[in-house]
Amino acid sequence: MGVNHSGGIAAMLARDGMLCRVTELMEVARHLLNFAMVSHWLLLILFIAAAVDAVFPVVPSEGMVITAGMAAAAGHQNLLLVITVAMLGSVIGESSCYFMGRGSGPALRRWMKRQERRQQLYDKVSAALHSRGGLILMTVRYIPGARMVATLTAGATRYSFKKFIVFTFAGVTIAYTYVALLGYIGGDAFAHDQLKALAFSLSLAATIGLIVETTRRIAVKRRAAKITSA
């Protein structure tokens, strides 16, 4: 009995300690988020994140744009300026990726051929670029990890840079307007709790992304089924 009672107390204390730690971490995150929103460096950080994300897709530029959109809702930033800065950063990053592919075309193709999955992806993107390049460059940013492959492949296959820049600019305009507006909506809906606003905006973005990706996969399967039946 005594052992069980002691074990119950220990478990309760452990739970209380864990809850306290989670609460403390949430408070720290809330303070960091509030600091980021009012920081004079936010737009510069946003520009760098958008540029780097185009080359190394490990930098969460979407999260930064959402945060900046929330800052605009709170009156700390200008929404149009937020979208413009993110767009410019992304265009510069994607253009750099294009010229990296253009300068290392043969080496890139050899690297792609080392793995069957990479080779298949390269072949598909290459064929798609030259059949419907505009659509690919505008929509590829919604597929995780595919944007870098598409921009590198565009450069490696000598896809017209004039067309590349036009379609890339159109794509980033749509993408970052959408993401910044998600942040703005979340910031406006939860004006007194920025952590909830961020969670809401990220959840909304993930839900919309899941719907779009599911719809895309269904459409691809239907097209494949029609081709097979024909």
UniProtKB/TrEMBL annotation:
The keyword Nucleotidyltransferase does not apply. Belongs to the DedA family. The chain crosses the membrane at residues 40-59, 79-101, 164-185, 197-215. The keyword Transmembrane applies. InterPro entries: DedA_domain, VTT_dom. PANTHER family: ALKALINE PHOSPHATASE LIKE PROTEIN, UNDECAPRENYL PHOSPHATE TRANSPORTER A. Pfam families: VTT_dom. It comes from Kribbella kalugense. It is found in: Cell membrane. GO terms for cellular component: plasma membrane. Keywords: Cell membrane, Membrane, Transmembrane, Transmembrane helix. Residues 59-184 form the VTT domain. It is a multi-pass membrane protein. This is Membrane protein DedA with SNARE-associated domain. It comes from the Bacteria.
